[in-house]
Amino acid sequence: MEKKDLDWANLSFEYQPTDYSYVSNYRDGAWDDGALTADHSIRLSECAGILHYCQEVFEGLKAYTTESGDVVCFRPDQNAHRMADSARRIVMPPFPEDRFVDAVEKVVRANAAWVPPFGSGATLYIRPLMVATGDVIGVKPADEYQFRILVTPVGAYYKGGVKPVKVQVSQYDRAAPHGTGNIKAGLNYAMSLYPSVEAHAAGYADNMFLDPETRTYVEESGGANFLFVDKDGNLVVPQSATDSILPSITRRSLVDVAESYLGMKVIQRQVRFDEIDQFVECGMCGTAAVISPVGEVDAADKQVVYGMDHVGPVMQRLRETLTGIQSGEIEDRFGWVHKIDVE
Ligand code: PLP
Ligand code: COI
């Protein structure tokens, strides 16, 4: 199979349509069989639930080419599971988890020519989404839905890749305490757009959101979870008392990488913003972000500098180990790498 003629090494994190998407519709209480489609648009009633009461959830994962030429993706079962959790929280019918993984395989196989080659630094970003297509006018869940998966080749999410970025502490919250911050629903991202545009305009890669109840603890950024390294070399992972952090699959994998591959101690706890100057490294992690080192955190009355020159040694090792597992260069001890037969 011949690859598309793209400048793989210089892709940005932008959408470009590929050959196929996957689509399945929910009607009369059941999901249909689902199929690939070359139509990348959705036709909706003006009264569709998504347009009024924002019933939408999504996921993000990536397909890679390994060193040996296989096409793989990373822990798709975890995305299937989180999407089902997200759906239930806003009263949408979960797409069956085994069918989710099967649909990911189908759509990646159909777009194999778009999977970036090994070593290019690019990946095929896979974006499953689900929207309420049924009509609603009173405030209630719709009774018809569409599940889709689009794929698009991408480069680094935070410009600079492994070069440290700056973040600012937001004056706004991205989620409510005990609200929907722990699910992957578009409504959380709508909340984060105003502060995100503000942060970018001021030269920051993203926001650091503090806990929405007390504005005391570190939560996450607009598109990734935070990680810190303390003076003793331990990985410190912020937890939320208000359940408003998205349970990042990358972060949970890095906890296992740190413990099992690197022999590090991992401390998962609430992290006060006023203690982050005690740490020696900071990073943001997520599917899109992978691990992006944070060189500086700015708040109205405080500036914390970890160093803008280069990625710290622990973040570097975590990143190399995770990406090494994903690309097949490091042993996959936990069976995370999911091969897709593309023949
Ligand atoms: N936090 C937010 C708000 C995100 O959008 C993402 C991306 O999915 C993450 C964290 C990282 O999650 P994951 O590692 O599962 O991609
Ligand atoms: C991902 O990492 O997959 C996400 O969905 C984050 C998004 C902000 C691009």
From TrEMBL:
It holds the Pfam family Aminotran_4. The modification N6-(pyridoxal phosphate)lysine is found at K184. Its cofactor is pyridoxal 5'-phosphate. InterPro entries: Aminotrans_IV, Aminotransferase-like, B_amino_transII, BCAT-like_C, BCAT-like_N, BCAT_family. Keywords: Aminotransferase, Pyridoxal phosphate, Transferase. GO terms for molecular function: branched-chain-amino-acid transaminase activity. It catalyses: L-isoleucine + 2-oxoglutarate = (S)-3-methyl-2-oxopentanoate + L-glutamate; L-leucine + 2-oxoglutarate = 4-methyl-2-oxopentanoate + L-glutamate; L-valine + 2-oxoglutarate = 3-methyl-2-oxobutanoate + L-glutamate. It is an enzyme of class 2 (transferase). Pathway: Amino-acid biosynthesis; L-leucine biosynthesis; L-leucine from 3-methyl-2-oxobutanoate: step 4/4; Amino-acid biosynthesis; L-isoleucine biosynthesis; L-isoleucine from 2-oxobutanoate: step 4/4; Amino-acid biosynthesis; L-valine biosynthesis; L-valine from pyruvate: step 4/4. Its EC number is 2.6.1.42. One of its GO terms (biological process) is L-leucine biosynthetic process. Belongs to the class-IV pyridoxal-phosphate-dependent aminotransferase family. NCBIfam families: ilvE_II, PRK13357.1. This is branched-chain-amino-acid transaminase. It comes from Olsenella uli (strain ATCC 49627 / DSM 7084 / CCUG 31166 / CIP 109912 / JCM 12494 / LMG 11480 / NCIMB 702895 / VPI D76D-27C) (Lactobacillus uli). The lineage of its organism: Bacteria, Bacillati, Actinomycetota, Coriobacteriia, Coriobacteriales.
